[in-house]
Every structure is written in C-alpha cells, then in structure tokens.
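Entry for the shared binder. Reason: the reviewer on the internal report wants the predicted structure included alongside the sequence.
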Amino acid sequence: MAASSTGRLDKAEGSGLNPAESSPAIMHFHITKDGQQFGPLPVDEIRQRIAAGYFSEDDLAWTEGMADWRPLREALPAPLAPPPIYQTGAKPAQILPSKPSATAAARTSGLAVASLVCGLIGIVIPLVPALLAVIFGHIARSSIKRSAGALSGAGMALAGVIIGYLMLFVVVLAIAASLLVPAFSVMTEKAVQIKSTNNARQLVLGMKLFAADNNGAYPPDLETLFKEGYLEDRRLLECIVDRNGNQVGWDYRGAGLSDTTAGNTLVLVSGGESRAGVMIAAFADSSAQVLKAEKLRLIEEQRGPP
C-alpha cells in the first residue's frame, strides 16, 4: 500500500497536479472507517453520507495527489459557492389592501330603525307601536353588542326604547285614570249624599226644638232656626250638588205644620237632583232618605211612607 501510495504521489507530482486544485466534480476519495475501506467515492456522495451520519468528518480519506491520509474535514474540497443571482431590477413593493375599518363596514341595524320609528308613531298611537318600539329596541341593542362592530344604530335603539317606555307609561296612567276617576266620582257622590242626609236630620231636629218652644209649630223657614239660636252651623244648609255642579239648597216644606204632623210627612227636600239622579228627603219623624226623583214625586202625591 505504501509503494502504491508513493507511486501515485510521484505520478501526481510528475504531472504537476494539486489535489486541492482538482475539480470537485471528478474527485473520488478512499475512506477508512473502523478498519474498513470504502471507495473510491465521489465528493457529493461522501457529503451525503456525512449528512446521513454514515461517515464522520474525523474519518480518514485519501485520493490521488495526497501525501497521506487526512480527516475528511481537511481532505474534502470546499463546496463551490452558489452562482450569483443577478437582479434585473428591484421588485416593486407589494401594497396590501388595508383592513377595512369596523366603522366603515358597519351597517345600521334594521331593528334599531324600526324601534325608533315605532316609538315616534307611539306618540300619536301609544299602545301597540310603543310596545313594538320596546321589543325591537331591546333586540336591536342585544344584536349590536354581539356583532362586534358589524352593526350600528345603538343610539336609535336606545331612543326607541325610551320613547316606547314613556308612551306605555302614559297608556297605563290613562287606563288607571279611566278606572279610578269614575270610582272616585262614585265615592264622592256617596259622601255628599251621606253628608246631606245628616244635615237634613239635624235641620229636622232643630225644627222640633223650635216647635217645643212655640206651641208645637214648626218655624216659618230654616233661617229662623239660625236667627233664634236653635242651630249654629250654617253648613247644615248645604245639600247635594246638581248635574251642573252647583250646590243646591233645601226646599222647606214644614211651614204651617206642627209637631203633631204625621211622621211620614215630607218636611224637607233637596232643591234639585244630584248628578246620580237622586234627591234627599226628610220626614217629620226625623228620618231622611236618598230617593230617586220619580220615587220622591210618587211620595209627594201619596204623602205616604216611601
């Protein structure tokens, strides 16, 4: 092997070749690894086996023109530099389209518009449009929040909800008033009737006191009872309110009568009908009743008990 190596070396020196200057594409190496020899192998295959881990850069290599075995890292020629890449011109910069803004891409929620429109209509026609304004407004606001900027119109939805609630409140208030006002009127009427009935009883009692001091005769008019001190509170002269809202007085029927008059005799009648179409009647026995006008006229004709 030494003689062969020497002969090859002499041949290489005689020819004037340098292994380092030989073309890598045509160079072949003998490789020794763990006492075994491989080759001759081309440079490219050796590099592939090194990359695969089959050879190590510390394994010894020899080729023609080398004086002795050398590690692969020293024996292999340097890899050729990649050919230069010539650019004929600079590549124009790529202009990427800008991401559309959420505000520009957002579209107005149809339910938000519907809520506002229904709210405005609800000002004129309160009930159904106002209810729709509230429903559409809440749905629109929920959708806008979940859209992550894809929908707009939150302000319109809020305005529709507010107007809708206000109109619904007006409707509820109107309904409550329509129910409460008549009931209040009835209670007020009842209170006036009770007060007028009590006033009539007090007036008849004053007539009897006057009769006790005047040979059993009733006073000629009600004013006499106040002038002579039998009664002091002139509010007793107040009676029911008529259909026109005017306070009516008493129609005194006791002039010329006495305490011996039959108890069912009318001595005091309200001066007109109340809004409920009733009248107050007082009798000689100090009783007082609330009667319909027709019933009272029948009593006056019969001069009997109700």
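Summary line for the report: The CA atoms of residues 226 and 232 lie 6 Å apart.
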